[in-house]
Design brief:
globular, four-stranded antiparallel beta sheet
Length: 117
């Protein structure tokens, strides 16, 4: 399963970005999807996750109320809408996919998000 992120960039604090993660995998609609981020010198952190059918989502406390994860199974794409961005949101954002409830099996290369103050 190949995952390709897009939509990163430079934005001022308080601004918005929407990240996309697309795949050609025909099994996309059965995969649970997640977004993670890694800032320079820090560990990779969980950001958000969405169930295969979009009926359940979960967020890190640090982004709750500001970020929204969604998916379009007809387009094999998962999104991360990021509003009210803060400088501390600066990181490389990666999407990931898994088939079950365990660890994520597939990872994208990531897209850089930089929030200026």
């Amino acid at each position: 399963v190949q995952l390709v992120e897009s939509g990163g960039g430079l934005v001022q604090a308080g601004g918005s970005l929407r990240l996309s993660c697309a795949t050609a995998a025909r099994t996309f609609s059965s995969l649970h999807m997640g977004w993670f981020r890694q800032a320079p010198g820090k560990d990779r952190d969980f950001v958000a996750t969405i169930r295969w059918d979009g009926a359940w989502t979960d967020y890190a406390d640090s982004v709750e109320g500001r970020f929204t994860i969604s998916r379009d199974n007809a387009k094999n794409t998962v999104y991360l809408q990021m509003n009210s961005l803060k400088p501390e949101d600066t990181a490389v954002y990666s999407c990931a996919a898994k088939r079950g409830t365990g660890t994520y099996d597939y990872w994208g290369q990531g897209t850089q998000v930089t929030v200026s103050s």
